[in-house]
Write a structure and sequence with these properties.
twelve-stranded mixed beta sheet, 12 helices
């Protein structure tokens, strides 16, 4: 797969310059990208270079406009770092992902990372990929997050999910202490060291990326009722409560809530999200201990709006919180809300980091 760069790809701009990968070419990536960039508000927030196949974007544009879909960005007017699909070992069709489409999406990501590390982009917005097709193509990674962290040379990183309520404009921020691992492995993966690293990462991100000087963070328990004094699990009594006590001493200026029983942790965020009267002020961030503990409530509240943000990297990375949707690819019905939100958040965070670099803020 060769690389061709449009002459307009790296034109100078005062706005953040973001790389936007197209994800798996058999999925909805090209569709949601064209829909997102068809919004003048999104285009006005930053400069973007798309990384993928120009012919695929043109095909998508013609196909969808032929179906009567309106509001799409015309690929002729976009900056594209062209990675052609010609010569793929297998044909790539919408809805039929294979090893070739997996290899293409991996190449898009690796190119975006390489160019960003060279300083060409301030951040990366990634369209969805299929992990199983990466594996079929010979790339054995749990997901895009791990590839980004490996390439950037960082070991302490995290998956932070951010969503802004359309009802109240309150922002939900949920960090996962563990990510793509089997549920039965979670208790062994959780250690005081991991929890401390994730908490430090969260505090730093809330300060640096969101401008919250003294964040209030709610931390979930692991077991039902947070173990109920050891009756429903002993992890809380054995080490999680002692760990939290020590962290409160380490961060006396912060409010660290917990360990909040997992079934009640999300009551306050839901009240803040939907505008209901809350019994207490919601936290600035929520630390969930495993994937579904955090993402079930996030997707219930914000399925079309949540953004996956990788924190701990030397650059911004966001992604829509949905998959490749092979079942509806090419049908023109994919919603671009999450992709729009991912681009807007990446632009916002890039601008804040640029300002802080100038002022010296949060150089901790």
């Amino acid at each position: 797969m060769s690389l061709e760069l449009d002459e307009t790809a790296f034109s100078k701009s005062q706005k953040p310059h973001l790389a936007v990968t197209l994800g798996d070419p058999a999925g909805i990536g090209s569709e949601v990208v064209l829909k997102a960039l068809g919004d003048p508000m999104v285009r006005g927030k930053c400069q973007m270079t798309l990384i993928g196949d120009r012919a695929l974007l043109t095909k998508t544009y013609k196909h969808l406009t032929g179906q009567g879909v309106e509001g799409l960005a015309d690929p002729q007017n976009l900056s594209i770092l062209h990675l052609p699909l010609e010569g793929s070992a297998e044909p790539i069709e919408w809805g039929r992902g294979n090893a070739a489409s997996g290899a293409a999406s991996f190449a898009y990501l690796k190119t975006a990372i390489a160019q960003t590390l060279k300083g060409e982009f301030q951040g990366i917005v990634t369209a969805p990929i299929a992990k199983s097709l990466w594996k079929a193509a010979g790339y054995d990674y749990p997901g895009q997050t791990e590839v980004l962290a490996e390439a950037a040379g960082v070991k302490n990183y995290g998956m932070l999910f951010v969503a802004r309520s359309p009802h109240t404009h309150w922002t939900l921020r949920t960090l996962l202490a563990t990510t793509h691992i089997p549920l039965r492995d979670v208790p062994d993966a959780l250690t005081p060291e991991r929890m401390t690293n994730k908490l430090k990462l969260f505090i730093h991100s809330l300060r640096k990326d969101f401008g919250i000087a003294t964040p209030k963070i709610a931390i979930a328990g692991l077991n039902p009722h947070s173990g109920e004094a050891g009756q429903l699990g002993t992890e809380e009594q054995d080490w999680l409560f002692p760990w939290l006590k020590a962290e409160r001493r380490n961060h006396p200026d912060l409010e660290l809530l917990g360990l909040v029983p997992p079934d009640t942790l999300w009551v306050n965020p839901a009240q803040a999200w939907y505008g209901e009267d809350a019994t207490t002020t919601p936290a600035d961030g929520y630390l969930a201990l495993y994937h579904d503990q955090g993402l079930i409530p996030v997707k219930l509240m914000a399925f079309d709006r949540a953004v996956n943000t990788t924190i701990g990297l030397p650059f911004i990375r966001t992604s829509p919180d949905h998959g490749t949707a092979f079942d509806i690819a090419g049908q023109g019905i994919a919603r671009a809300d999450s992709m729009k939100a991912a681009i807007l958040l990446a632009a916002e965070l890039s601008e804040r980091r640029s300002r802080d670099e100038i002022t010296g803020a949060w150089q901790d």
